[in-house]
Amino acid sequence: MGTSWDDESLTALRVAVSTRAGGVVGLVRGRLTGEVLQLVGDALIAAIDDHVDGAHQVAAECAAALRVRDWTGDDDLADQLEAAVGMSATPMLRAVAVDLEELSSLLEGDPAYGGGRIDLRTGDTWPTMIADEMFDDEADDDPDRWFYVPCVGSRAGYRDMELFIESVADPAVADRLDIAISGRGAFRRFKDVLSRWPDEVHRYWLFADERRRGRARGWLAEEGYRVRPARGPVQ
Question: CA 38, CA 29: separation in Å to the nearest integer?
Answer without folding.
Answer: 15
